[in-house]
Amino acid sequence: MSLHLMDILWLNQCSTMGQEEHCVICGDKTSGYHYNALTCEVCKGFFRRSITRNAVYSCKNGGHCEVDMYMQTKCQECRLKKYSEAHGMNSRGTSAH
């Protein structure tokens, strides 16, 4: 017995129903895809402001800070670096999902 593509897609959708997706930057609950990455509103705003202001940040820990939803505001350089590494996140546009 083989599954058809529609059956596979339906099963995949059912298996993810009720599960929250998490921001690839800080791990908080996401609001959708922004700048080609699945992020929360806080991280989306930080990335947008950093790009529009051409911000340059410096890390006091040599660029090795942990970025999560509790520490996301502590080191701006490491946070912005994590954005650029996150699934092709870029400033050229957003994906509306």
UniProtKB/TrEMBL annotation:
What are the alphabetically sorted keywords of the record? Answer: DNA-binding, Metal-binding, Nucleus, Receptor, Transcription, Transcription regulation, Zinc, Zinc-finger
Tell me which InterPro entries the record gives: Nuclear_hormone_rcpt_NR1, Znf_hrmn_rcpt, Znf_NHR/GATA
The source organism is Odocoileus virginianus
Keyword Phosphoprotein: yes or no?
A: no
**Domain of life per record:** Eukaryota
Q: Which PROSITE patterns match?
A: NUCLEAR_REC_DBD_1 (PS00031), NUCLEAR_REC_DBD_2 (PS51030)
Q: Which residues form the Nuclear receptor domain?
A: 20-96
Q: What is the name of the protein in this document?
A: Bile acid receptor-like isoform X1
